[in-house]
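[Automated response] Your request has been received and processed.

Submitted sequence:
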Amino acid sequence: MIQELVNDGQAVSDTPVLSVRGLCKSFGGFHAVKNVDVDFQPGQIHALIGPNGAGKSTFFSLLSKFHEPTSGTISLAGQDITRIRPEKVVRMGMVRSFQISAVFPEMTVLENVRVALQRRTGRDIQFWCGLGLLDSLRDEAMYLLDRVGIADLADKRAADLSYGRKRTLEIATTLALDPKVILLDEPMAGMAIEDIGMVSALIKEISQDRTTLMVEHNLNVVEDLCDTATVLARGEIVAKGTFSEIRNDSEVRRAYIGTDYD
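Generated structure:
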């Protein structure tokens, strides 16, 4: 039976929105991901952490279907997506951002978000369309820009944004696809200190009504932002739980070989 939990005054199902069982990925004789079982709950921010070479990026690529698993299953909202193509997974509600900023640099901020909205509405393959069709998406695009705090930059070229603002624009384009699950690949990488706090607050705000999974090396961000964390080492899970639970785990300490969590 599905139970209901109360989270900030809202009922939240404890049935996982994303579930992985026995997931493995091998490249020749190298086992990048080995027998991973993990669930991701609705309305939570879940961190995937571990030392370099732990298998985090491969695991993310398996979830977003850029790699096919050697074995195991991936389920989204109860549906097996293990062999489904990436574009269909996006339409089903799971969207990924990448470590490298991926905006259209010569387009304006508003145009970037409008393109994402066209994708969601099925209009992305219409190469020629009237301005009225594009203008019909303006209000929703401006709403999303306002939600992430960059509505005042709507007419600015994306290429002229600071790195932190480009990442914010990426979050706006991600929201335009109306995802159930957001995969954020090192969202704080390369950011100035002042941008980290801004983007962290934004991630927390947009995650209230969806599931967010993030790969992140900044453990201070993980501690402050994430509800739960999974630690990978050599492709295997060595610990799961809250940050306070995993920080003193002996297996985690061995995996990081002396990393200071304080």
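Summary generated for your ticket: Residues 104-177 form one domain. The radius of gyration is 19 Å.
If you did not submit this request, please reply to this message.
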